[in-house]
Amino acid sequence: MSAVRTTCPYCGVGCGIVASPTAQRDVAIKGDTAHPANRGKLCSKGTHLGETVGLEGRLLHPMIGETRVTWDMALDDVAARLADTVADYGPDSVAFYVSGQLLTEDYYVANKLMKGFIGSGNIDTNSRLCMASAVAAHNRAFGEDLVPCTYADLDAAELIVLVGSNTAWCHPVIWQRIEAARERTGAKLVVIDPRRTETAERADLHVAIAPDGDVALFNALLAELAARGQLDTGYLAAHCEVPVGYIAGLDAAAHGIDPATFAALADLVAAHPRMVTMFSMGVNQSVCGTDKANAIINLHLATGRIGLPGAGPFSMTGQPNAMGGREVGGLANMLACHLGFAEDERAAVRRFWKAPNLCGGPGLKAVDMFRAVHDGRIRFLWVMATNPAVSMPDAAFVREALARCPNVVVSDVIADTDTSRFAHVRLPALAWGEKDGTVTNSERVISRQRPFFAPPGEARADWRTLCDVAARLGHGSAFAFASPAAVFREYAAMTALAAGRGKVLDLVAQASLTDAGYDALEPSRWGGEHPLRRRYPTPSGRARVVPVEPPPASTGLRLNTGRYRDQWHTMTRTGLSPRLAAHRREPLLEVSPGDAATMGLVDGGLGQVTTPAGAAVFRVAVHDGQAPGAAFAPMHWTDAMASSGRTGALVVAATDPHSGQPGFKNVGATLAPV
Ligand code: SF4
């Protein structure tokens, strides 16, 4: 087979890849020089994808319990469990928990089946753990979930501010682009992060805020710029709604960092109007993540630094297709295609889908969904392409919930995951290299993921499995898609509902793609380069400066969690690569030298972390990049690979009130030597 142009399955940078199969289940990987996201570059994870495509551990056949069954038997069983549960307990007794690993076509079909035909809003996604707060902030400020920047803005910026992001490790190709831009243009870099990460070490200025200190800092910065006469009062007056007296009431001294660092930051911001602020999990994964993102957006609106080359607030997504899931509406608090649950929006969606049972309103967001599974309100759960028994906060509670649930279906590529151990039915899915569809990256570029391996065993596409179940529920004609292209065409046509209501999301031109046109689809961005500047998709046409208050200061030791450079999520794929494993062979608990001394922890020894959710043991790494009073642990290790170092067991299930996103950072903890 000749080389195939596809996209990387890991992070939201969305790099293009040229995959050249060399033998059965062997492939050579190169960056795609024609893809706008990476222009040929790849990071270590993308480069070593070829080491992760073997069939070890794959789920190759449908299973009911430990018995291999035919697809017909498995689909009949899933449909019967779903139908019986709905008949006995109503549509809100069933739920889908899906994933930013799904392709847009999988997402679209899952969302349509649950919200239009089963009649519940109970479809949520592991993207809830990743960027839901950015979504909520965009909706509050812009009236639509819209990232107003592209990667080209990094090339044009004079100042790049990274907030809550170890970009060098977590979005490495963006990092390479930032480094190249700095070298070429002399752009300045500020990193705002409690940790002195590898990214922070390369910055012109590292602002080491307290965990969740972002709102205080950005509010103070806004006040300071106002005091220096740096606001764009014309832009504010013409294009923004600002609560009376809000900006004037902010305190330029209430930033919580040392005054010299704040002054240096304010000087840099004041001197460089072409400023991009990129934010990621340190902002989103917080019980006040939506307010943090709005504090960042407020600063850009008030200074008119938005919708221009080199200027804007830029949310980086974690997963390869979190954006595609957002676009089709695969979140419990959205209906479809950037539409909500207002009666006219529901009526339009009902007509478009010819939906017999359109849901009445939002469903349960991830944390609440698992609470409902635990207490028996949800009695059927279908988990697709994610491992919530490890990745959800309070993972022990989630395991209890899964153990209690009378109907757990898991669609996955891996036979034995921490979650699939609770499954009554396991359905084999396609992996990267077999999947065929589209994904959207952080800068709104839709790219094709193309197959280059034949499906192994009886694995099949998730969208097709969902359609087969829908047919067994009596909805065959609405789910008679012959191909992923047919799904994409229907989704693209549906965006007319959003565009007709003044939203920016508009793929109607792609609704007439032929199958050949879909196969050949080049990376294409919806919304253009700078969709926001003069008219916002709010009822008034103006952006909203949203008043935000800093949270109360935290006390005691705070645990932050995050990624390692060469691992991905729960390591089901990256764990297969020996070269990736060499970067960090085990999970390390990073603590500051002072805290280590106070708590009796030694470098290389063992330490136990205890939180209200649970306890876990790690090897200790004393690191002066950790601020006193804070510790850091990686998120990747699971029971399947280690008896210790399981971070998911430590995170409490507290959530942001606007987005429902859990706070994976800033968890109160105690440490002790083992
Ligand atoms: Fe893949 Fe992200 Fe690395 Fe690009 S930066 S190669 S998308 S993991």
From TrEMBL:
The keyword Transmembrane helix does not apply. Keywords: 4Fe-4S, Iron, Iron-sulfur, Metal-binding, Molybdenum, Nitrate assimilation, Oxidoreductase. GO terms for biological process: cellular respiration; nitrate assimilation. The keyword rRNA-binding does not apply. Residues 1-57 form the 4Fe-4S Mo/W bis-MGD-type domain. GO terms for molecular function: 4 iron, 4 sulfur cluster binding; metal ion binding; molybdopterin cofactor binding; oxidoreductase activity. One of its GO terms (cellular component) is membrane. Its cofactor is Mo-bis(molybdopterin guanine dinucleotide); [4Fe-4S] cluster. It comes from the Bacteria. Transmembrane segments: none annotated. Residues 529-559 are annotated as: Disordered. Belongs to the prokaryotic molybdopterin-containing oxidoreductase family. NasA/NapA/NarB subfamily. This is Molybdopterin-dependent oxidoreductase. It comes from Alteraurantiacibacter buctensis. The chain holds residues 1 to 674 of 853 of the full protein.
